């Protein structure tokens, strides 16, 4: 049967039949031709271990564990010789080393089938023999390489420099890009031919007519590569490694190995000599490792000989006085504790004993006041049935605009269009949470979030005019309540939550934090309905907003009109909070209860009445005042309302007499009549 590679399950290529080499003997099993069967190991590598992003790196790891020696792929040294090219580096900070080899007389074509299959097994698409050779060397040694068509380089020159602002360049993916002055480029005598460490350019691409190759093996600054990769949304095998940090000493060995692979796969002649620009070689890192410290940190006795054995297994070299020279590819080993961690990992974490009471711990550490107060606030919210939400700090700018008048800071390279700006409020994310739950059949939602918002400092602007760093990052407590007050059951429930449920939650949070001086007043807010939008004041200072969701915001987020929101300034609350509350003894004398009902204008807020009642007493015997009734209708005149308060009076040193209680009630009546026009209701 005649089949395409796609039909054989080897690749996505279905452009035609799979053509086998002419020298293949008829009857040869296909799996033998493709180097099969094979075993593929998929290994997750943490960002701090770029040395393990290769077959050689994994081999070193296995060698350290098993004690079996590593076999490094052989490569002949470059030797000496003149090459028909020139290398210059303008920015040695961003490119500390650049090695180049030249191969002449190559023949571009497909790689042998077993090479193609090996690349596919490693997740790399075969392209041509020269490009495949660079990818094979990358997978073997972990160092990215790139081949240029030497005859397409103007002046046969390589210049490593910064791009000019707005300079154009077309990368291998066919996209023309406008470069930034922060981008590092590989240029020839006229123009950029590659984004350094990220992707090559079309103008120097190896093609069917290529006969001479200039092979690049360089070292680039990780931070610069990361910025360029993010800026142009280009994540490649090369950038993935360079932005984690490569070994500049491996650059020469990688160039030699790759050059030999090119000759093997594409023919040609490898010219003797190499162009190696390495102006400031990096000295090996030396780390002090004390066996006694290893034992102390790990909590188990480890002898000097064992410490020595594990460090040598990692190919560290002793240099005397307890100091060890770290191999250049282990850029993560810079401190003694790093080496101790490696010893623990190689020995096995299971060899470290579990002790319920670590030695040297004599007492329980005190809980920081801020953590104590935060725990109290979370407990108060949990008691009301609220769950904590954790949302991204990146949101859609249109969502933020629907609930906040604060202009947001836009991201240069957002993950998605729905995460294009830094949040200026927690309310947008919480409303999205409500909508998400409603869409999945969960109508009753109680959520809170404690997190940071990102507000630009005054006059913090990028040269382009956009808002930019620095920013202020205060913490906020966001609360959202939607649906029923409590779940419906045989004994009631199911009635809709209202503003006072939300206000009660806020008051309980304040009480849990030990905040007593709080009050509320009407204040407009973009996210809140004008009829209920309220500001929270703590000790006379603004500390947040709460109220019913604004109809426009409800429509934008597709949430019910009966959704209630609060956003509190966490820093302001912490400033007025009490980590340890003052406990008082049981009252020695009984309280005296009195009820007072007043008729006032309908627009007089209860908060003002409460303030005047407290002021009339001056903090002497008024223990508690509670609003327990509000009434409008006959016989109360139109435009007026009846407001009733319950008073609890108690003196700390005696039992109050009826005369004393009546005197205070009379003083309250007189004060409210004089200041608010209140009349006592019979």
Shape: elongated
Low-pLDDT runs of 5+ residues are none
DSSP helix fraction: 25-40%
Q: What's the multimeric state? A: single chain
**Which secondary-structure class do the elements indicate?**
alpha+beta
Number of helices: 18
Compute the separation of the termini in Å: 105 Å
Overall mean confidence score, pLDDT? 90
Radius of gyration: 37 Å
Largest sheet: 7 strands, mixed
- What spatial order of strands do you see in the largest sheet? 16-19-22-26-25-24-23
Strand residue content: 15-25%
Tell how many strands the DSSP assignment holds.
Answer: 30
Describe the protein:
This protein is of the alpha+beta class. It contains 18 helices and 30 strands. Helix 4 runs antiparallel to helix 7 (250-266). 33% of the residues are buried. The model has no long low-confidence stretch (mean pLDDT 90).
């Amino acid at each position: 049967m005649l089949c395409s590679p796609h039909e054989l399950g080897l690749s996505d290529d279905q452009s035609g039949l799979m053509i086998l080499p002419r020298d293949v003997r008829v009857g040869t099993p296909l799996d033998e031709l493709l180097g099969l069967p094979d075993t593929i190991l998929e290994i997750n590598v943490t960002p701090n271990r770029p040395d393990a992003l290769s077959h050689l790196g994994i081999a070193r790891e296995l060698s350290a564990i098993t004690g079996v020696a590593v076999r490094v792929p052989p490569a002949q040294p470059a030797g000496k010789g003149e090459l028909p090219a020139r290398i210059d580096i303008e920015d040695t900070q961003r490119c500390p080393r650049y090695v180049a080899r030249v191969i002449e007389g190559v023949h571009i074509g497909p790689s042998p089938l077993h090479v193609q299959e090996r690349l596919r097994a490693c997740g790399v698409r075969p392209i041509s023999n020269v490009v495949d050779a660079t990818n094979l060397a990358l997978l073997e040694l972990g160092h990215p390489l790139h081949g240029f068509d030497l005859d397409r380089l103007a002046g046969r020159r390589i210049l490593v420099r910064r791009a000019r602002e707005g300079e154009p360049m077309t990368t291998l993916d066919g996209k023309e890009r406008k470069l930034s002055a922060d981008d590092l480029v590989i240029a020839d005598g006229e123009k950029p031919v590659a984004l350094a460490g990220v992707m090559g350019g079309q103008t120097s691409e190896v093609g069917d007519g290529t006969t001479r190759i200039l092979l690049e093996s360089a070292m680039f600054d990780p931070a610069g590569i990361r910025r360029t990769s993010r800026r142009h949304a280009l994540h490649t095998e090369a950038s993935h490694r360079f932005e984690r940090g490569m070994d500049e000493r491996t650059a020469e060995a990688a160039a030699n190995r790759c050059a030999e692979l090119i000759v093997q796969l594409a023919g040609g002649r490898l010219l003797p000599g190499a162009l190696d620009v390495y102006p400031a070689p990096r000295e090996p890192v030396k780390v002090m490792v004390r066996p006694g410290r290893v034992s102390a940190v790990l909590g188990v006795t480890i002898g000097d000989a064992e410490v020595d054995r594990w460090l040598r297994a990692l190919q560290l070299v002793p240099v005397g006085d307890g100091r060890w020279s770290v191999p250049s590819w282990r850029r993560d080993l810079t401190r003694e504790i790093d080496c101790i961690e490696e010893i623990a990992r190689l020995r096995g974490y299971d060899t470290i004993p579990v002790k319920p009471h670590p030695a040297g711990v004599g007492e329980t550490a005190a809980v920081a006041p801020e953590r104590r107060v935060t725990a109290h606030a979370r407990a108060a919210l949990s008691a009301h049935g609220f769950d904590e939400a954790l949302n991204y700090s990146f949101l859609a700018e249109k969502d933020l605009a629907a609930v906040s008048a604060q202009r947001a800071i836009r991201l240069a390279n957002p993950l998605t269009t729905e995460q294009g700006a830094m949040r200026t409020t927690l309310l947008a994310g919480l409303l999205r949470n409500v909508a998400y739950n409603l869409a999945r059949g969960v109508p009753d939602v109680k959520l809170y979030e404690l997190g940071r918002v990102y507000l630009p400092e005054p006059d913090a602007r990028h040269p382009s005019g956009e808002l930019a760093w620095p920013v202020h990052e205060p913490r906020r407590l966001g609360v959202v309540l939607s649906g029923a007050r409590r779940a419906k059951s045989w004994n009631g429930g199911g009635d809709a939550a209202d503003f006072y449920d939300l206000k009660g939650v806020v008051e309980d949070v304040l009480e849990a934090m030990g905040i007593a001086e709080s009050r509320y007043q009407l204040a407009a807010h973009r996210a809140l309905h004008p009829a209920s939008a309220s500001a929270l004041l703590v000790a006379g200072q603004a500390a947040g907003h709460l109220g019913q969701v604004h109809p426009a915001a409800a429509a934008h987020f597709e949430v019910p009109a009966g959704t209630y929101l609060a956003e509190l300034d966490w820093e302001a609350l912490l400033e007025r909070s009490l980590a340890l509350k003052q406990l008082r003894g049981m009252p020695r004398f009984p309280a005296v209860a009195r009820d007072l009902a007043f008729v006032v204008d309908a627009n007089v807020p209860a908060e003002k009445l409460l303030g005047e009642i407290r002021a009339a007493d001056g903090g002497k015997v008024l223990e508690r005042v509670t609003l327990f009734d509000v009434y409008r209708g006959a016989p109360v005149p139109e435009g007026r309302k009846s407001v009733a308060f319950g008073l609890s009076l108690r003196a700390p040193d005696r039992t109050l007499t009826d005369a004393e209680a009546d005197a205070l009630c009379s003083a309250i009546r007189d004060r409210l009549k004089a200041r608010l026009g209140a009349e006592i209701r019979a």
